[in-house]
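agent> Task received from the user: take the single chain below, predict its 3D structure, and emit structure tokens. No templates, no multimer pairing.
agent> Plan: (1) validate residues, (2) run structure prediction, (3) serialize to tokens, (4) report one or two observations.
agent> Step 1 OK, no nonstandard residues flagged.
tool_call: predict_structure(input=
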Amino acid sequence: MLHLEVKSVLLLNPLFVYFVITGRLNNLFIFIQYKILSSSEIQTIVLKSIASIADKHKQIFEPYLKSFYVHSNDSRHVKCYKLEILTILANGSNISTILREFQVKKTFGIPH
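)
tool_result: status=success, residues=112
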């Protein structure tokens, strides 16, 4: 079953890119957020695509910064991609928010 889910995400990837480029990301991003909760493999594929797009179009993902915060139950690969995305999106106006999030995780001993 998981194999079918991964195929579905791979087939949706060009559609995802289209929505990003045309600026119609809001509705699609909500769908993606729910979809990436289903499995680590799907999260990895989607986050890898987001990291690639964010590298060239940061402004698209800046409103969704909190969606890329690392959680203790994230797989290692998912954590790495989320950190990569946060690094790409970091700028003078949001770096304090990102650093505060990391400080909270460190203070409360949330594993990484």
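agent> Step 4: summary for the user.
The chain has one domain: 2-107.
agent> Done.
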